[in-house]
Amino acid sequence: MHKATIHWHTQAALLKAHHELDKHLIVGQMDDTQLTTQGQMPKLLRQWAVDGLLVFYTTQFPEQMIDMINNDRIPAVWMNADLTENAVRPDDFDAGFQATQKLIAMGHRDVAYLYFGRAQHYSVGHRQAGYLLAMREAGLTPRVHQQEIFPTWEIGQRTEQISEILKSPNRPTAVVTNGANTTLTTLYLACQLRLSVPEDLSLIAIADMPIRELGLAVHTFVIDHESFAKQSVDMIQQRVAEPNKSFTTAKVSFIESDGQTIQSF
To answer: Where are the alpha helices (DSSP H) in 91-219?
Structure first.
């Protein structure tokens, strides 16, 4: 059951995981009224003839929805939600930490963090927090450049902000970029300003998928969709078998996809 958009790679991995277990996956989409109406959840399970729910509602979900699921004793696992139990999510904090630590290990001491997009999802704060910890542990001064932009494909504000950073005489030697939009804009502007990547600017991205749109393989920490889906399916199987037991949220490590955008300083 989903309210947010499920990445196509996660969908494919969910189907594969269910097929391997000889189980059926039924996908349904509902609005908040349906999700918060008393008695609606048990009715859904009967109508759909399912044993449990994989809930893909990642941000700003109604708090009473969690209580209703628990009170009705419905086996459910939340995907990509910042909950302490009965959930599976990418380890965005660790991705921010690992990406920054890699650049520091390569000799960079002036590493900036860039994100220009929507700030609703918890991953935005978690990735930045990982960056901040890596910088502080290394005794370095963080440089966070972040602004909420909506819609996310609106490039005007993003272009202005990143252009100022790259034109500055105190330009960082390396950047961690969050998301494909911020990453591609940074690479495009670096090219416009005749900055060579990685000679003048090293870049590591954190993203849903590897980034190769500009003919350059970006060094990226990528969500492991296969593991994310498999761990979600494994947990819902456990919850169906033990509906009265809660499970600690599982955090899925990112995959490091090697690219051509980093070098030692």
So the answer is: 92-105, 122-137, 156-167, 180-192
